[in-house]
């Protein structure tokens, strides 16, 4: 265990696997992936539906299929070692990683660079404070997905789903296919938070009603969920008295958002962004501590795994260059501000090096808009201007800032998305 | 005969155009609301012969997990999807299985195979 790795990757989901492949492609020689589950692939192993990979692999794959493709790229690489059943306890500033598994006990591992790819976890009932008793039959959509798709249990027969994010919609279809009755999907926003494709193929196909601007004000039942009370909400998302109605169900699934999983980052003292919930990163996906990189849902929650792989590819490449002492020297630091219409933008800053490189920005808008103009400007000039027919909070926008423009930036950058008048 | 109007949401891109189709005597007379050609193609197929991919699970004996995820190798007629899913609830396979192995050939005589979407080792053959 005295060996020094080039790169240690914390988490063997799609981000970790893609980072490892990219690091290998860029010449890293000793790459170690630490995975706490009994196999790699992460959440994809329970996402048995298809629609993954169209951007990254130019082919439509299921979740397990996508995980397998990522794994096949590194499976035979001598440079890459994987430890499963391994829990990382601590990542230190000097790139020491403390981990434990049943075979080796507690290990102190050392690396030149660390890539954090821990992904995200679901918000729970506690996070949204629904009143009522605490009966059995309330699950996060992802927990139910794991039960139904991997473990062989049905969480219930008559289902209500709160939240119209993609996991909620996918589970509405999945439960229907397994013979359950999905009574309704409730969404507190006045618009759906899922892809149109999922609205059509997961709800409309199965005649499942979607209530927009609605939430749950009470959960009934003591031992087991016996129904819920729904109500319409106003513009401030507060329930409107007098609009309550009951829906009969034995199970409630919550699809109410995801939170990047950053316990390790927090203990390490990484700077975290208040809106993304993930580490603040530069264009190489290097965090506020030199040699610690981060990519995928741990940085900001993605809607497409394809973009996770792209982003992990960036982190893997620059972690490899750092491990080989080939990372270009970085000069000044340019902040990127999320301006009008934009909620978050990753990376949050660019560290300009001696060599110019294209910088890809990933952003989310604040609200659904049609016919918008996306602009990137510095303190003096407009650098990028693009028309988009539609922009939705649920669909991340990727825009490239060409190398020669990134090279000539004055002051800070601001990204805006405004409706055309 | 009366003209039937159908409203569809196109799924080809994030635009999600709301498309209205007018159908008379089973023939599509007018398609409006789409912003591109793909919307028209989608509308025609959705109205005349809608198809869906099916993903589900089947039970697996001796596998490291009790369930094996499966996928239709091509899209199935939409109206047959529920029946196919019900059929798959009765299928039991035996580990080991490789991704791509057919678990239900020519399901319900529809000319489409259902295949494993991952490898599943036997739990008796697990490496130490």
Overview of the structural elements:
The complex is a heterodimer of chains A (421) and B (128). Chain A has 421 residues and is of the alpha/beta class. Chain A has nine helices and 27 strands. Chain A is 21% helix and 35% strand. In chain A, the strands form seven sheets. In chain A, strands 1, 2, 5, 6, 7, 8 and 19 form a seven-stranded mixed sheet that branches. In chain A, helix 5 runs parallel beside helix 6 (196-203). The N and C termini of chain A lie far apart (63 Å). Chain B has 128 residues and is an alpha+beta fold. Chain B is 16% helix and 35% strand. Chain B has helices at residues 37-48, 81-88, and strands at 4-9, 18-24, 27-32, 51-52, 55-61, 67-72, 76-77, 92-94, 102-104, 114-116. In chain B, the strands form three sheets. A five-stranded mixed sheet of chain B has the order 8-5-6-10-9, with no helix packed on it. In chain B, strands 1-2-3 form a three-stranded antiparallel sheet, covered by helices on one side. In chain B, strands 4-7 form a two-stranded antiparallel ribbon. The radius of gyration of chain B is 20 Å and the shape is elongated. At the A-B interface, helix 2, helix 4 and helix 6 of A face strand 5, strand 6 and helix 2 of B.
Give a quick set of tags describing it.
heterodimer, A: about 425 residues, alpha/beta, FAD/NAD(P)-binding domain, Immunoglobulin-like, five-stranded parallel β-sheet, 27 strands, about 35% strand, B: about 130 residues, alpha+beta, CPE0013-like fold, five-stranded mixed β-sheet, 10 strands
Task: Quickly describe the structure.
The complex is a heterodimer of chains A (421) and B (128). Chain A is α/β, with parallel strands linked by helices and 421 residues long.
Largest sheet of chain A: 7 strands, mixed
Number of strands of chain B: 10
- How would you write the strand order of the largest sheet of chain B? 8-5-6-10-9
Total number of domains of chain A: 3
Helix-strand string of chain B: EEEHEEEEHEEE
Low-confidence stretches of chain B: none
Rounded radius of gyration of chain A (Å): 22 Å
């Amino acid at each position: 265990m005295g060996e020094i790795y080039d790169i240690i990757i914390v988490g063997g989901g799609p981000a970790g696997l893609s980072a490892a492949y990219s690091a290998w492609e860029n010449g890293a020689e000793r790459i170690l992936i630490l995975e706490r589950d009994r196999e790699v692939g992460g959440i994809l192993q329970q996402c048995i539906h298809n629609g993954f990979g169209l951007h990254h692999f130019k082919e439509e794959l299921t979740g397990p299929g996508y995980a397998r493709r990522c794994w096949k790229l590194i499976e035979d690489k001598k440079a890459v070692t994987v430890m499963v059943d391994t829990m990382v306890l601590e990542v230190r500033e000097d790139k020491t990683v403390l981990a434990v598994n049943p075979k080796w006990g507690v290990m102190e591992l050392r690396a030149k660079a660390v890539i954090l790819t821990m992904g995200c976890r679901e918000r729970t009932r506690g996070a949204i404070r629904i009143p009522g008793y605490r009966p059995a039959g309330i699950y996060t959509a992802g927990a139910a997905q794991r039960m139904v798709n991997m473990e062989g249990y049905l969480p219930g027969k008559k289902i209500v789903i709160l939240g119209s994010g993609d996991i909620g919609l996918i589970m509405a279809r999945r439960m229907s296919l397994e013979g359950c009755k999905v009574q309704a999907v409730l969404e507190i926003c006045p618009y759906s938070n899922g892809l149109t494709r999922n609205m059509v193929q997961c709800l409309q196909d199965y005649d499942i009603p979607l209530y927009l601007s609605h939430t749950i004000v009470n959960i009934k039942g003591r031992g087991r969920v016996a129904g819920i009370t729904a109500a319409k909400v106003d513009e401030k998302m507060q329930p409107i008295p007098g609009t309550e109605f009951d829906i009969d169900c034995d199970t409630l699934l919550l699809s109410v958002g995801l939170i990047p999983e950053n316990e390790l980052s927090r203990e390490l003292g990484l700077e975290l962004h208040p809106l993304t919930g993930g580490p603040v990163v530069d264009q190489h996906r290097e965090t506020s501590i030199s040699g610690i990189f981060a990519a995928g849902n741990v940085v900001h929650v993605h809607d497409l795994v394809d973009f996770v792989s792209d982003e992990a590819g960036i982190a893997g490449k620059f972690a490899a260059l750092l491990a080989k002492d080939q990372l270009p020297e970085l000069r000044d630091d340019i902040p990127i501000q999320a301006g009008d219409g934009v909620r978050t933008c990753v990376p949050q800053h660019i560290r300009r090096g001696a060599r110019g490189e294209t910088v890809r920005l990933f952003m989310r808008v604040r609200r659904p808009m049609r016919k918008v103009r996306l602009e990137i400007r510095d303190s003096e000039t407009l650098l990028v201007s693009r028309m988009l027919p539609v922009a939705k909070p649920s669909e991340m926008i990727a825009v490239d800032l060409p190398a020669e423009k990134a090279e000539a930036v004055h002051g800070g950058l601001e990204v805006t998305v405004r409706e055309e008048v | 005969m009366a003209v039937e109007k159908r409203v569809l949401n196109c799924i080809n891109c994030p635009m999600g155009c709301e498309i209205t189709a007018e159908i008379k005597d089973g023939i599509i007379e007018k398609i409006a609301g789409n912003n591109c050609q793909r919307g028209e193609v989608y509308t025609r197929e959705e109205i005349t012969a809608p198809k869906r991919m099916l993903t589900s699970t089947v039970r697996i004996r001796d596998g490291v997990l009790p369930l094996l995820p499966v996928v239709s190798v091509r899209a199935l007629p939409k109206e047959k999807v529920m029946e196919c899913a019900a059929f798959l609830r009765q299928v039991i396979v035996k580990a080991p299985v490789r991704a791509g192995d057919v678990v239900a050939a020519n399901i319900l005589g529809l000319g489409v195979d259902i295949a494993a979407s991952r490898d599943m080792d036997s739990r008796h053959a697990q490496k130490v």
